[in-house]
Amino acid sequence: MPTDTFYITTPIYYVNDVPHIGNAYTTIACDVLARFHRLLGQDVLFATGTDEHAQKVLDVAQSLGKDARAYVDEMEPKFKQQWSALEIGFDDYIRTPEPRHVKVVQAIFQKLLEQDDIYLGSYEGWYCVSDETFFTPAEVTDERCPNPECRKPLTWVREENYFFRLSKYQDRLIEYMETHPGWLRPDYRANEVMAFAKSGLKDQSCSRINTGWGIPVPGNDSQVIYVWFDALINYLTVAGYLQDDEKFARWWPPSVQMMGKDIFVRFHCTLWPAMLMALGVELPDIFFGHGFWTIEGEKISKSKGNAIYPTELVTELAELSGCEKNVASDAVRYYLLRAVPFGTDGDFSRATLIQHFNSDLANDLGNLLNRTLSMLHKWFGGEIPPVSRKDDALAKLAEEATTQYVEALENVRFSHALEAVWSLVSAGNKYVEQSAPWALHREGKEQELADVLYNALETARIVTVLVAPFMPCASEKMWTQLGIPGSPAVQKLPESTQFGGLRSGAKAGSADPTFPRIDTKKRKPETGAAAGTSPKKKSDEAASANVISFEEFKKLDIRVARIVSAEKVQGADKLFHLSVDAGEGKLRSVVAGIAEFYDPAELAGKTVVLLANLAPAKIRGVESQGMLLAADTDGRAILLQPDAQAPPGARVR
Ligand code: ME8
Fold it and tell me: 157 CA distance to ligand 1 centroid (A)?
């Protein structure tokens, strides 16, 4: 594998429907690998696109009374919209009707014809329009597609076709597999390819009768090139084959070609390598055939109406949690790659998505970053403190996690990589619990307290770099919260995860949680696979978003406080700058909008109620470290007061 470049491809998807969560899975996986390899310092070419010359695409267009060309043009923006909702950062998006591709497909067909790897014959057998696959009578038992994922009725086809001499490459292919362990992944799928190749490869029909849709066979307009022959060549077109020799030399062969198990054995690991052998072009480094998602135990199917579309899911999750849409998109990306080991099948359910959201993101990650940041704001005015002792154990764990993460992603093991990162997150949280910064603060151990917060935030910084390929938007937010300039996406591995990179003296951003916890008790139970997308359910959930759980209430630090002094904030008629004793040994500065209703002298000595863990903010240039609670009656603020004597610092529960 060339060390300075990384070329990765998704399959190009049929445009007879907008992409659903299954297509999104492959595309997200490729996007994560692309971003990871950029962190490794490689130049990346990440390509995706659409496969538009399928018979089924023509059938859908015709059923809608549309011209095929107009129909596919309408579909393209819908794909890009779904990918944009998932923050997919492809470098090239190829559509098969593009002139750059048509030229390459026809030139390849011509070359293979001239060298007698393609010949004219006649085909008689089955064709599955849904899978766009030819099947021999021996493969079919009941006139239905033998692919267990499809099982649609087949069409008997009898027509003059061109054939590709696939059989000629059988032995070379078997030998290549035998001498290149790790070429096809996971291993268990490699065995399927070997069994298929050994079962005896037949020459492959590589054209169809021209019904007005497809790339015409050069010199014979009565035929169009078979959609799979056309589609597979997209990988060569993207790399510049027969268009730009320098570009092609730089990018070819692909480092990873990714797809689902449905198109792994027959097309990508048999027909495609044989086509490349016939062209004398090097074979891709790795083919990966991942597992399939079902939804609540059911196959994803347009006809069943259970398909989940990324944009809808992202909107739903954002509404449910109250997070921003791009953060919700990150959570979907995270969930898909964390919940199931890459390669095996998975069953999608909103319940497990929410479980991962709450437990891994809101709790684990939120504790490490946002809880520590709140303490930083509370005790250090939000400034990263100087550190006198970096924690060696955490530093070692960060190094180990990075090594495991890199190794896992180099081997396309997403869930392993995330497990390594979460072991570091847990270690960081455990460190905070054991160091008990709140006790250090109480005891006035300033430097020890500074060390603990620094070490915890430094762990959060390293975690932020490592999660960046999975969660590009949330990681940017987290980076800003840590007060670090630039972006985690342009860091370099492993240097940037060396312990100690966090700069003391930097001003941290807000401590607001990036992933607000979803209140599961308030969630309506799911009914059916497409549950959650109905307007009724959405409004129920939006209403429930206004209710907080006891857990959330417990996060509020409300205390009794005594106002020591009050003065007007210069240039602001409505604001008072108050000094407040909240029982912490030193006074807090609080800005309150009560100047219209109280006299400064009247306020001094009053016992009031303070929300003490509101993120500090600068109001008219004055630091405000909390909020006084007041009743709002007809626009007048009336300060709340305990009805019997309570000392400053007493908790309100
Ligand atoms: O086959 N779970 O396109 P396609 C996981 N045009 N992944 C899934 C999935 C599921 N339930 N459903 C689909 C084609 N996928 C051809 C490819 S390439 C030269 C031509 C993903 O639109 C998975 O990657 O049917 C699968 O291989 C691909 O979508 C099929 O997409």
Answer: 25
